[in-house]
Amino acid sequence: MEQIPVELQEQYRALQALLDQLDPHEPPKAIVVPPSPEPRGHIIVFPSSFNPPTTAHLSLLHKAQEQGGGDVMVYAAMSKQIVDKEHVERPTLLDRLVLLQQILQHELPGVGLLLFNRGLYVEQAEAVQHSFPKVSRLTFLVGFDKIVQIFDPRYYSDRDVALRQLFRLAHLLVAPRGSNGEEELRALLARPENRQFAEAVQALPFDPAYRDISSTRVRQNPTAHARDVPPEVLRFIQETHAYEAPAVPGAGAGASDPYEEHLRAVAAVLRKGAPGEK
Q1: Contact 103/232 with Cβ under 8 angstroms?
Q2: Which pTM does this prediction carry?
């Protein structure tokens, strides 16, 4: 069985303990992942599934730091419930969280890490309001694809009521994706149904070199897009084969699933840290 390095075992146990505190069926809740500082003042939060974290994710977080200057705290964030992605299983949320924490500590030590129990931005805004009373202004960093999703009525029982609540609590900083940039954002905000929210939405200038980097493309072909991920992610992919299809039951004795072996090793680490286990 794969052995989880000793220096990572406590990280797995600590992060799993935080995830265990989050129930998607409870009211919106946010948790700070140590050693990240407690949010206060103006914060910029970048929620994503980080599946996997890419160089574009890191560049966006760095750009948010530059945009905010020294007076703004910047956080990456993950949710126990991701809209349209609830069935993501490989790699697990815990593995993605471990990877993201490692990368932030090595490459962006000034960026904090938050966890949410809910997936909608309005729910996450409510979570920040309830969990961090010292926050005076909340800005979500999103890609163009997400602002389209945010304005999509199919995610709400009453879109305008939900959006008024969201923009009462938060502003949006929108980064371009692919061919969609500032001009397309202005057109989206100019639509009659969206015009009332335009003042709360701002474009974030972003290096075109990162616009087409996609976690989806990395998942589909990690080898072809190896340059699009940090070294820690590439090493994880190569060692665990997390994005390969699971072994087919009954495929024979020679069939193996390295990621399942990795999950068994992680489970053993978590059991070892459980009360009453040795």
Answers
A1: yes
A2: 0.91
Rg (CA), the chain: 19
- Measured CA to CA in angstroms, residue 183 lies from 85, 180, 186, 202 at distances of 28, 8, 5, 12
- At 29-77, the pLDDT tens digits run 999 999 999 999 999 999 999 999 999 999 999 999 998 888 899 999 9
pLDDT at 119 over 60: yes
Mean pLDDT (the chain) is 91
In the chain, % of residues over pLDDT 70: 92
Per-residue pLDDT at 1 exceeds 90 = no
Tokens (6 digits) for 21: 């505190």
As a whole number of angstroms, the distance between CA 63 and CA 205 comes to 8
Phi, psi of 56 (to 5 degrees): -65, -40
Is-contact 207 59, C-beta < 8 A?
yes
Judge residue 242's burial from the number of C-beta atoms within 10 Å of its C-beta, 0-12 exposed, 13-18 middle, 19 or more buried.
buried
User: Over 31-76, what HEC string results?
Assistant: EECCCCCCCCEEEEEEECCCCCCCHHHHHHHHHHHHHHHHHEEEEE
What residue ranges define each of the domains in the chain, with the CATH number in brackets? 6-273 (3.40.50.620)
| Amino acid symbol at 240 | T
Residue 102 has pLDDT above 90, yes or no: yes
